[in-house]
Amino acid sequence: MPSFVSGAARLLDLYCLYDSYKSSSTEREADYKAMLSDWRIVGQDILCAMKQFERSLPPGSRAHDDDLCGASRQMSLFQ
């Protein structure tokens, strides 16, 4: 939680020296990191949706372990 002092420091920081952001040595590296981060989030969303769907199934009708949506396959895809 930012304090009053840190807020005032940001107001007076004309050259943006107070805050530091993730930096990359090249534009290509920055693009790679951003894309990797985006796809990780997409993967997490898909995993969450798969788990939610599996929980909605009636007992005894779970996907087989050798199925693409099986629990062992889910974990290996997104870890």
Give a written overview of the molecule:
The structure is a single chain. With about 80 residues, the protein is mainly α. The protein has a domain at about 25-79. Helix content is about 60%, strand content about 0%. It contains 3 helices and no strands. It has helices at about 5-10, 25-55, 70-79. The two termini are about 30 Å apart. The mean pLDDT is about 80.
In short:
Helices cover 59% and strands 0% of the residues. It is mainly alpha-helical. The longest helix is centred in the middle third of the chain and has 30 residues, at 27-56.
Order of secondary-structure elements: HHH
Would you count the extended β strands for me?
0
Global structural class: mainly alpha
State mean pLDDT (0 to 100 scale): 78
Overall morphology: elongated
The helix fraction, in percent, is: 55-70%
Q: Which value, in Å, is the CA radius of gyration?
A: 22 Å
Number of helices: 3
Biggest sheet layout = none
**Low-confidence parts, pLDDT < 50 over ≥5 residues?**
none
> How far apart lie the N and C ends?
31 Å
Q: What portion of residues belong to β-strands?
A: under 5%
